[in-house]
């Protein structure tokens, strides 16, 4: 009888252990989500599987929705016609075509600037979801931030859009062009993820600045790629690239100040 | 017994609970350890988790990690004791946006990152490509206004009123159409000076519609074109139009809106096709008069490789006017796009401001600050900015003669052109010339001075050659470069021979004009509808003493290609004599010119004999008379005065019955059936009156002196 009890106890314990493990794995939410989430997230966030047959038209209108050069050109062209109804003043070799520079300047200022702003995606607080500044919210936010950074932007570490652009423009470097194209894709995917993140209140400024810098760097990459098609835009970007880099430098410093302030450890 | 089962069950339950709790604790501990404490964190914090730190779980790294990447986040901790509370950690994290991190102190240095950016900025801002494309885009706008007649008139009416609409279109149409004709002639020389192989050259010529007949230099049409031709011969020649823009515009003015759209599309399609063909040839040849700047929109595969060109700058006409406008308004465009593109008031709206608390730049859009910068004159679109040394490329050059061989007559001078193409910023040091036998030929110089013009990649020189005695000699040109001391050289064989005589006899009985139907006259302007005439001739060099001096070609050329051109129709060369040839003459615009007929030696350059025939082109219309007091569609009156001047007003043959045709502007009667035409000599007031009333513009050609009996002229070229 005693032996039976011991045997029964053992069987019950074994069954209970199996049951307990089953119950544990059924109700341990974090564990199961982390595993599956890891895989799903990684699958969803992996860089696009480039289709090498895909053709990309380096057309500013396709990328930005407009061509600033055409816009500026049309303004000047219209002014040329209006100011020179009789055609060029051929007798005056120094200035055969008269332009109303003041009018042209005003028109370009109004129209090119307006269009350039329209073409650039600028993120504001209206675009994101704010959450209370709790420890968990910050932890979740920074975790996702790093995940997105790793998934989409890490391949571009130590790269420089301007250097890549110079290689493309001056040496027709296909590898550099490919990286710029890849960055255009990856940065957009990063932005699509970043815009969905719940952002703690104290991180909103940084978050928006990050998104706008990514957006503008993507803008820069595409502008350089389409220099043939839209030289005015490439010009504008080139002249302001240093300013953008300066902003990025300031952002990186501010980000790390915030990390220290919030005692975040990686 | 009643309690034994209960106790037994309680024991089982308690045992179960103990097992479950034990296993659960074990499992949870392991799970949390796996999840929340990644190895990197454990290493960084060395097992001590300060109470104020919370860990950030890490997902596995993405599969694609660049080998040169650095860690995104790093922490360093210092602990005063073995307790966690004594540790202080400092972490940093960098998001790998492909932007340079700039050291404020190095911004102004033209080195490193800042230097690279500055160089790129300068390269883009000052690249010929950017300038050319911008000029082209500006031209596109002008062209679109002009070619879309309705739009033009709608828009221009807003500015000037209806009566000036047509004036704008006509004036600009003429301006645009004149340019490519002139440039096309220059293009021939450009192409001939390249290193294209013969087959590619012929293909290119065929596509460009260039014939031997128009290979000589022409006087520029006016100062403006002269200026632009001098400056525009080095960059990116585009595709020839088989249609003149001016002709298209004239035609468009005669159409209703429905046809206008159709014709415009046909025109653009035709030009695009030509552009694609020429672009292919250029790609095949690798270099030449055409450049890669023709492509406006490339398409690339996902490897970044350029697969092709989706959009070319439509045609040569556009290209030429691009150049013209770029040259013509260079100063204005430069000013607009650099110093005055924006008013200074815009800067405050778009310039980021640095937040003193966060250090972040806010309130502006960095990428757009260039507009404001430009407004302040910092860096203009086409102004010179700071630059860094360019990548070192191997400088090299190539040299060629045009033509590749030449016949020189004894006792006569001839010229040959030397073109030197420089790549990768090669700078010429000197150019020397040598002759294999100075008894046969002599040169006017043995050394050429390179031109100081860094903006040009091609330099051209002209050398005068004198024929001393019959024979063959070789001239060698050698150019050396400053940096590498490399040389490029080429030879030209020169054949010196004794000139002989030949005779050109235009056959006036075969001088055929097109049919007399009205259709022939009402659609002038489009290429396949332009008025043409045919001139046959015979050239006879019988009796030529020098058998070696065979006739090789008969070339027809209109001295002013803006008026008309001559297309070879047929040439029959049988031995040395006689030669029969004919040409088709196409008229473009009113004016006078000369049809020149040249019989050339085997080098196709040396003219054996020549004849010039005066010609004139004018307007005419049918059944429309425009007297001084207005326009009405009359039948020309017998009392309409005739004039006999071939170059002014009307000219008719004597003893020819009058018809009902009258001049478009002047209303002066024309005797059409007998080949009489008028040139445009009407006072403007009459022309304006007619323009409002007459919807059909008509070209006509007057070949005045050919209506007289032509006499054979012998031209002897002497020793």
Structure characterization notes:
The complex is a heterodimer of chains A (266) and B (719). Chain A is mostly helical. Chain A has helices at residues 2-27, 29-45, 60-64, 68-83, 101-119, 135-153, 161-171, 174-194, 204-225, 231-261, and strands at residues 55-57, 129-131, 198-200, 264-265. In chain A, helix 6 (135-153) packs antiparallel against helix 8. Chain A starts with a helix and ends with a strand. Residues 19-53 of chain A have low confidence and may be disordered. Chain B starts with a helix and ends with a strand. Chain B is of the alpha+beta class and 719 residues long. In chain B, the strands form 8 sheets. In chain B, strands 9-16-15-11-13 form a 5-stranded mixed β-sheet, with no helix packed on it. Helices cover 31% and strands 24% of the residues of chain B. The C terminus of chain B is likely disordered. Strand 1 of chain A pairs antiparallel with strand 4 (295-301) of chain B, so a sheet runs across the interface.
SSE topology sketch:
The complex is a heterodimer of chains A (266) and B (719).
Chain A: H1 2-27, H2 29-45, E1 55-57, H3 60-64, H4 68-83, H5 101-119, E2 129-131, H6 135-153, H7 161-171, H8 174-194, E3 198-200, H9 204-225, H10 231-261, E4 264-265
Parallel strand pairs in A: 2-3
Chain B: H1 3-36, H2 39-45, E1 54-55, E2 73-79, E3 87-93, H3 112-126, H4 128-147, H5 149-159, H6 162-192, H7 198-208, H8 223-232, H9 245-252, H10 257-285, E4 295-301, E5 306-312, H11 316-328, H12 330-339, H13 347-350, E6 353-354, E7 361-362, H14 369-375, E8 396-402, E9 406-409, E10 413-423, E11 428-435, E12 441-443, E13 447-448, E14 458-467, E15 471-481, E16 487-497, E17 501-506, H15 519-522, E18 532-540, E19 553-558, E20 564-573, E21 579-587, E22 591-600, E23 607-619, E24 621-622, E25 661-662, H16 684-693, E26 699-702, E27 713-716
Parallel strand pairs in B: 9-16
Antiparallel strand pairs in B: 2-3, 4-5, 6-7, 8-10, 10-14, 11-13, 11-15, 12-14, 15-16, 17-18, 17-27, 18-21, 19-22, 20-21, 22-23, 23-26, 24-25
Helix pairs in contact in B: 4-5, 4-11, 5-6, 6-7, 6-9, 6-11, 7-10, 8-11
Transmembrane segments (chain A): 7-27
Keywords (chain A): Membrane, Transmembrane, Transmembrane helix
């Amino acid at each position: 009888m005693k032996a039976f009890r011991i045997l029964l106890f053992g069987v019950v314990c074994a069954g209970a252990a199996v049951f307990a493990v089953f119950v544990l794995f059924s109700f341990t939410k974090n564990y199961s989500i982390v595993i599956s989430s890891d895989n799903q997230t990684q699958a969803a966030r992996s860089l696009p599987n480039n289709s090498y047959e895909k053709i990309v038209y380096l057309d500013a209108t396709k990328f930005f929705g407009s061509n600033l050069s055409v816009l500026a050109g049309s303004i000047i062209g219209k002014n040329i016609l209006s100011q020179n109804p009789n055609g060029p003043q051929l007798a005056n070799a120094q200035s055969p075509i008269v332009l109303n520079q003041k009018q042209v300047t005003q028109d370009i200022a109004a129209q090119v600037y307006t269009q350039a702003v329209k073409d650039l995606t600028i993120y504001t607080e209206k675009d994101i979801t704010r959450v209370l500044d709790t420890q968990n919210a910050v932890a979740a936010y920074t975790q996702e931030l790093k995940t997105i950074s790793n998934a989409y932007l890490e391949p571009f570490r130590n790269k420089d859009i301007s250097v890549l652009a110079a290689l493309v423009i001056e040496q027709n470097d296909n590898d550099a062009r490919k990286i710029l194209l890849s960055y255009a894709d990856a940065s957009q995917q990063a932005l699509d993820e970043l815009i969905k993140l719940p952002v703690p209140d104290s991180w909103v400024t940084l978050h928006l600045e990050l998104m706008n810098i990514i957006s503008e760097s993507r803008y820069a990459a595409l502008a350089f790629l389409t220099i043939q098609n839209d030289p005015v835009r490439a010009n504008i970007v080139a002249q302001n690239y240093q300013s953008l880099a300066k902003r990025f430098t300031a952002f990186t410093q501010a980000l790390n100040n915030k990390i220290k302030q919030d005692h975040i450890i990686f | 017994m009643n309690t034994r089962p209960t106790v037994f069950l309680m024991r089982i339950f308690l045992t179960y609970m103990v097992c479950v709790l034990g296993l659960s604790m074990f499992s949870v501990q392991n799970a949390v350890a796996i999840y929340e404490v990644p190895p990197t964190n454990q290493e960084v914090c060395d097992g001590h988790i300060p109470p104020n730190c919370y860990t950030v779980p890490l997902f596995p790294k993405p599969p694609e990690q660049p080998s040169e990447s650095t860690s995104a986040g790093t922490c360093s901790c210092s602990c005063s004791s073995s307790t966690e509370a004594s540790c202080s950690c400092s972490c940093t994290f960098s998001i790998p946006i492909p932007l340079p991190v700039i050291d404020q102190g190095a911004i102004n240095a033209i080195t490193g990152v800042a230097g690279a950016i500055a160089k790129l900025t300068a390269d883009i801002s000052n690249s010929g490509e950017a300038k050319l494309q911008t000029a082209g885009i500006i031209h596109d706008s002008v062209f679109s206004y002009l070619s879309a007649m309705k739009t033009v008139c709608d828009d221009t009416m807003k500015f000037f009123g209806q009566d000036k609409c047509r004036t704008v279109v006509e004036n600009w149409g003429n301006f645009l159409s004149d340019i490519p004709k002139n440039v096309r002639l220059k293009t021939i020389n450009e192409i001939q000076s390249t290193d294209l192989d013969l087959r590619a050259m012929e293909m290119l010529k065929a596509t460009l519609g260039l014939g031997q007949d128009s290979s000589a230099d022409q006087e520029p049409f006016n100062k403006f074109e002269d200026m632009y031709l001098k400056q525009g011969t080095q960059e990116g020649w585009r595709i020839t139009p088989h249609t003149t823009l001016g002709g298209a515009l004239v035609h468009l003015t005669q159409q209703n809106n429905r046809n206008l759209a159709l014709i415009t599309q046909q025109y653009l399609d035709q030009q695009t096709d030509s552009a694609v063909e020429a672009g292919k040839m250029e790609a095949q040849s690798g270099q030449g008069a055409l450049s890669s700047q023709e492509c406006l929109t490339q398409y690339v595969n996902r490897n970044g490789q350029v697969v092709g060109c989706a959009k070319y700058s439509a045609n040569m006409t556009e290209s030429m006017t691009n150049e013209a406008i770029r040259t013509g308004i260079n100063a204005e465009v430069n000013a607009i796009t650099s110093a005055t593109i924006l008013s200074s008031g815009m800067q405050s709206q778009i310039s980021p401001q640095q937040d003193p608390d966060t250090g972040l730049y806010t309130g502006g859009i960095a990428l757009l600050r260039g507009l404001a910068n430009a407004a302040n004159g910092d860096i203009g679109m086409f102004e010179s900015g700071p630059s860094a040394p360019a990548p070192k490329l191997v400088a090299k050059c190539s040299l060629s003669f045009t033509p590749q061989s030449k016949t020189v007559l004894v006792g006569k001078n001839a010229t040959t052109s030397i073109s030197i193409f420089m790549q990768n910023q090669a700078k010429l040091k000197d150019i020397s010339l040598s002759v294999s036998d100075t008894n046969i030929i002599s040169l006017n110089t043995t050394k050429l001075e390179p031109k100081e013009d860094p903006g040009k990649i091609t330099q051209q020189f002209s050398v005068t050659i004198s024929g001393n005695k019959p024979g063959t000699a070789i001239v060698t040109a050698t150019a050396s470069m400053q940096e590498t001391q490399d040389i490029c050289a080429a030879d030209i064989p020169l054949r010196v021979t004794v000139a002989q005589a030949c005779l050109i006899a235009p056959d006036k009985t075969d001088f055929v004009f097109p049919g007399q139907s009205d259709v022939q006259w009402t659609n002038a302007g489009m290429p396949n509808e332009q008025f043409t005439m045919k001139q046959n001739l015979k050239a006879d060099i019988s009796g030529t003493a020098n058998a070696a001096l065979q006739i090789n070609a008969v070339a027809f050329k209109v001295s002013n290609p803006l008026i008309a051109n001559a297309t070879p129709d047929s040439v029959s060369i049988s031995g040395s004599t006689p030669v029969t040839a004919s040409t088709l003459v196409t008229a473009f615009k009113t004016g006078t010119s000369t049809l020149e007929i040249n019989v050339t030696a085997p080098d196709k350059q040396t003219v054996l004999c020549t004849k010039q025939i005066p010609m004139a082109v004018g307007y005419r219309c049918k059944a429309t008379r425009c007297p001084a007091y207005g326009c009405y569609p009359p039948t020309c009156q017998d009392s309409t005065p005739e004039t006999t001047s071939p170059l002014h007003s009307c000219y008719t043959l004597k003893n020819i019955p009058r018809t009902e045709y009258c001049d478009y502007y002047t209303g002066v009667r024309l005797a059409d059936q007998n080949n009489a035409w008028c040139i445009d000599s009407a006072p403007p007031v009459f022309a304006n009156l007619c323009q409002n009333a007459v919807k059909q513009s008509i070209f006509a050609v007057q070949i005045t002196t050919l209506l007289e009996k032509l006499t054979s002229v012998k031209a002897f070229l002497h020793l």
